[in-house]
Amino acid sequence: MAEFTLDDLITALKEAAGADEGIALDDILDVPFADLGYDSLALFNTLNTIERERGITLPDETVVEATTPRMLLDAVNLGLATAG
Amino acid sequence: MTDVVVTGIGVVAPNGWGVAEYWDATLAGRSGLGPLTRFDSTGYRAHVAGEVNFTPEEHLPGRLLPQTDHMTRLALVAAEEALADAGADPTTMPDFSAGVVTAASAGGFEFGQKELQALWSKGPAYVSAYQSFAWFYPVNTGQISIRHGMRGPGSALVAEQAGGLDALAKARRHVREGTALMLAGAVDGSLCPWSWLCLSRSGTVSPRRDPQRAFLPFDADASGGVPGEGGALLVLETPDGAAERGQHRHYGRIAGYAATFDPRPGSGRPPGLRRAIDTALADAGIGPSDVDVVFADASGVAERDRAEAEVLGAVFGPRGVPVTAPKTMTGRLLAGGAPLDVAAALLSLRDGVIPPSVHIGRPAHPDLDLVRDRPRPARLGSALVLARGHGGFNSALVLTS
């Protein structure tokens, strides 16, 4: 299955939790989600969207353990590889 | 008792966006009632509503959109206007010195309906995590508190259409107990099919299709109320507290308040509205002859109109006080209606003019001095606002200049 990229993540974040006009969503791989204005509920919703669209199931801990976009991309891509 | 004054007002109403537009429309007798457009009302028993349609992206940050019901978005807009009007920025105030009390009737009903639709039509994976709070009664208090850093007292009151006055009174209490600034009132509404079904089967909503004939309180042709959405939020402070941060202007005092509950049906005892008025006047330290205008609950259900007219006659005497119902131009805004009347009453005190009730062609109660069709200039020092909620709630609030 196609790799899950930062662009895919930004699309999912905007769809599931909206975007803060004051924060640019580029060069954010290692910026904590909290600094980007996304709380745990926003991530919960975003993960739900990703799981649904990619047909995968991620561990429940992902929402608290993946605190940056890079960590979340790794978790999603691991999930895709395992499912693939 | 410590004086508590209103230093800021925010309004979203079917006949006006913001205080200035609402007040212009209200004095001009411009109604915001129209055919329901939010969805097709075919098959329902009611067809006229007071809608507030707007483009949320133009008024709110994108992060708030996926997590808010329509009425919460409206509440956030009104909160921003009220704080700006008061010249207050709670994020610069000491922590816990500003709080929020709102009233609600059904929470984010439309948000909940959409998530239930997603659940049953598509499946659990399609339900938003924001359903966890977006439907909830206190959601407006929470969202306003978070957005403006108002971490002092926070609560929500539910008393159907009377709760908006109770929220203002509770906020007054917090100010008297030492909270520097409170934002209070209600913005409410849920013009979605699920809610419309419940409202239109309640026996209190007009089945008429003509927006000028649907909501006729105190009229011989009264056929029920018209639901609308919107309301008002007000900033409450002590005059000294406001002056300390450089705000010397205020709209008026919240001088008296009382809430009562009706006796059990069939008990033979009178409804509680009279007692609410008497107790609120006593709380304000004034008598009926000191009241210069009454903003009536104006149900639009003939029997309830009669009950209110009789109480007003008993307290003030025949044609003893001007009575008005500007809500004939907005519909009944659930919990938001009474705070909007409070806003209108404060603007009346400021401008020395009573806004009219509209569309009432055949007054049913000759003893009621109803202000109709045109605003009436008057020397105004005090106003009484009444609100009743389905199930027996009565609240009365006295404002003085």
TrEMBL record, chain A:
SUPFAM superfamilies on file: ACP-like
Listed InterPro entries: ACP-like_sf, PP-bd_ACP
Domain of life: Bacteria
Range of residues in the leader sequence: none
Residues passing through the membrane, by range: none
Name of the protein in question: CtcU
UniProtKB/TrEMBL annotation, chain B:
Biological processes, Gene Ontology terms: fatty acid biosynthetic process
Gene3D superfamilies membership: 3.40.47.10
PROSITE patterns: KS3_2 (PS52004)
Domain of life: Bacteria
UniProt keyword annotations, A-Z: Acyltransferase, Transferase
SUPFAM superfamilies: Thiolase-like
Pfam families listed in its UniProt record: ketoacyl-synt, Ketoacyl-synt_C
An annotated Gene Ontology molecular function: 3-oxoacyl-[acyl-carrier-protein] synthase activity
CDD domains in UniProt: CLF
Keyword set includes Acyltransferase: yes
Entries under InterPro entries matching the protein: Beta-ketoacyl_synthase (IPR000794), Ketoacyl_synth_C (IPR014031), Ketoacyl_synth_N (IPR014030), PKS_Beta-ketoAc_synthase_dom (IPR020841), Thiolase-like (IPR016039)
PANTHER family cross-referenced by the UniProt entry: POLYKETIDE BETA-KETOACYL SYNTHASE 2-RELATED, POLYKETIDE SYNTHASE-RELATED
Family: Belongs to the thiolase-like superfamily. Beta-ketoacyl-ACP synthases family.
Name under which the protein is recorded: CtcV
Organism of origin: Kitasatospora aureofaciens
